[in-house]
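Please fill in the sequence for the structure shown.

STRUCTURE ENCODING:
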């Protein structure tokens, strides 16, 4: 139930820690609108959460405990695919 792009988002956030969406899209060489579409279901599933950024207009994405568990379950298949 998770696309390859969504797994990449989870792994990138898990590896780098909280990331601003702009930084995450640059790291994954992904358009911001595509990233937004991939992030929305991850937020809804409770695997990612938004945390406050440097000012009131910004935020960062961070893995939740459930997100870390999901990444741990997906990493073997993700590594094989890479």
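FILLED IN BY: designer on duty
SEQUENCE:
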């Amino acid at each position: 139930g998770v696309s390859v792009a969504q797994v990449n988002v989870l792994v990138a956030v898990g590896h780098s820690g909280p990331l601003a969406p702009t930084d995450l899209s640059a790291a994954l060489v992904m358009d911001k609108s595509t990233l937004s579409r991939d992030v929305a279901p991850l937020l809804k599933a409770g695997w990612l959460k938004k945390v406050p950024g440097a000012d009131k207009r910004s935020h960062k994405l961070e893995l939740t405990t459930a997100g870390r568990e999901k990444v741990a379950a997906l990493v073997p298949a993700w590594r094989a695919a890479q």
